[in-house]
């Protein structure tokens, strides 16, 4: 997992960009990229919730990609 961007813009959004790899036994390595952005207001709670949502979307993309053997875009 290579997190290339983990930004907060108060009153606008939280964003996350990551490149990650999966390797199944006997198969080629899969390299995927996930970029997500979640709207947030100026409050700390909103910004933390937005980052948590982004991390959840990243985890779902990794899990889904592992299950199907190809890169899955975050919802």
Automatic annotation (TrEMBL):
Name of this chain's protein: ABC-type transport auxiliary lipoprotein component domain-containing protein
Entries under Pfam families matching the protein: ABC_trans_aux (PF03886)
Top-level lineage group: Bacteria
Domain ABC-type transport auxiliary lipoprotein component: 1-62
Species of origin: Pseudomonas putida (Arthrobacter siderocapsulatus)
